[in-house]
Amino acid sequence: MNIHALLVSRFKQALEALDAGDAPIPVSRSARPEFGEYQFNGAMALAKKLKQKPRDIAEQIVAKVKLDDVAEKLEIAGPGFINIHLSDRWLANQCELAVHDPRLGVAKQPTQTVVVDYSSPNLAKEMHVGHLRTTIIGDSVVKLLEFLGHKVIRQNHMGDWGTQFGMLLAHLNDKLQNNQMAETALSDLEDFYREAKVRFDNETGFADRAREFVVKLQGGDAACLALWDKFIDVSIAHSEEVYDKLNVSLTREHIMGESAYNHDLANVVAELKAKGIAVEDQGAQVVFIPELADKEGNPAVYIVQKSGGGYLYATTDLAAMRYRSSQLNADRTLILTDARQALHFKQTEIVGRKAGFMQPEQSYEHCPFGMMLGSDGKPFKTRTGGTVKLVELLDEAVERAGNLIAQRDNDLSEQELAEVAQKVGIGAVKYADLSKNRTTDYVFNWDTMLSFEGNTAPYLQYAFTRVKSIFRKAGISLAELPVEITLAAPQEHALAVQLLQFEETINVVAREATPHIMCTYLYDVASAFMRFYEACPILREDTPPAVRNSRLALAALVSGTMEQGLALLGIETLEKM
Ligand code: ARG
Question: Which residue owns the Cα nearest ligand 1 atom 5?
Fold first, then answer.
C-alpha cells in the first residue's frame, strides 16, 4: 500500500474536475499528529494562477476530492493547507491485507533493467575499508530493486588491469620460479605489493622487466596472461572471503572487471575521434568539455588516450557505458564510489552522451558517498597509520559482539552465542554505515555501533526478538491468527500508519539509493511498536480475546516489516538473543 500515491491520485482526479489537472500535486507527510498524517499543499500555488483566494480554492478541492473511504476528516488550515486525517477503519483494513501478504502489501513496480556497479575493488591490493561503503550500500540497493520487481544486473567493475600489474607479475613470476605456490605467495596482497614496489624502486633491471610484462600482457602473450589469471584468481578469492563474511550477494559471475573492456578501448577512442569529439593534444587524445570550464573559462580536459598510446580509467568507463546501454539495455546505471570520483563520472556522462554511447532516456547515476573516518576525524587507519584490512575489521566486530552478548543476561548455548555474535557483529558494522546519510563522512565508532540503544543494528535486532517472543509466549503462530484489526488507542493508530508507510519508504530508497531512509524508517517502526506495547497490553489477562488478537496481528505486521526491511538492508535477524 502506497498511501502517498493513493492520495496523489485522488487529488489529481479532484483537480481535473476543477479543470486544473496539470497543476502539481504536492502531498507530504504532516509534521505533527494534530495536523493529520498527510497534507495537501497545492491550493496556494493554484490560487495564484487562478487569481482566487487560497482558502476558497482549498474549499473547492475539499468538496471535490473523494476520500471518504480513506480519511476520517479533511480540514483546511492556515493559508490553505488541507490536512488529511486517515480513518481508523481504513488503516485497519489495509493492515489486515498486509499481514498475510508475503510482500506485506508492497506492490511491484513496472520492471526496469538496472545495472548496479558496486564494490569494484582493485585486485592489486587487499580490500580495505574504502570498499566497505560501496559494497554494503550497493548490495542493499540491489536487494531493494529486486524486491520491487526490477531486473538487476550486478557488475563488479574490479580494477584488474593496468600498468601496476607489470611489476606484480614480474615479482610473482620469480616466486613461482622458486617453486612457491601462487596461493602462498599471494596470501597477503599488501605485503606482496610492497615487496614488488621495493624491487621496482631499487633493484636494477627489475623495472625494465616489469615494463616488459606490461607489454606482453597487453599484447596477449599466453604465458603472461596465464600468470595474470593466477594473480587475479587468488586476489578475487580474497574479496570473496570478505563478501562471505559480509553476507553480500556478489559472486564471481558478477565480475565485469576493467580487463573485460580492454578489447574495445581502441574502438571507443576511434569513434570519439571520428565524431570530432576527441582531438589530439600534445600527442594525447583528449576531449575538451566546455560545460565544465574553470573560472577563467578554460574547458575541462578529459584524456582518453595517453601520448604513449595507453588507455585510462576514463576510457574503460566509456566502454562500460556503451556496453551497458547497447548490450544490457540498462534503463538505469547506478555507480557507487566515494565522492572524490564525482567529477570523473560527471565528465564521463557528458562525453558519453555526446558520443551517443547511451540513449537519452537511459539514466547514468553516480551515487557518491563520504568517507569513513577515525575518532580523530581523519580517514580511518590502523594505530600505526596503515590501511585497515576489511577482513580484520569484520573479525574484530564479531569478537566484540560476542564479548558483549556473553556479558548480557542470556540463555544461549555456545553455538547459539556464536551465531548471535556473527549476526550482531556484522550487522552492527553494516548498519552503522547504512544508517548514515550516504553523502556525508562518518566517524567509525565501535561503542556506538554495538550499543543496544539508539538507531543501531543490535537495538533493532533485539526489538525484533522481543516481538517474536510475544508470539512464543502466546503459543500461537501467525498462520492460526484470526486477522481482525481494530485501532482504538492513539498508539495503535500511529503504529498502523507507520507500518503502512513501508512501500513509500522502499520507493524512495530505490529512486535515490539512500538506504539510510530505510534505517530511519525501521527505527521509527521499532519505536512506535515500543510505545504501542507499553500502552496496549497484549497478553495481560484482562485483555479481551478480540483485542488481544487484533494487537497480535499488528505485532505480526511489525515483525514481518522489520524482518523484510532488515533483509533489504542485508542485516540478519534472530529468534532470540
Ligand atoms: N576500482 C575503482 C576504485 O577502487 C572503483 C570502480 C568503480 N566503477 C567504475 N565503473 N569506475 O576506486
Answer: 120
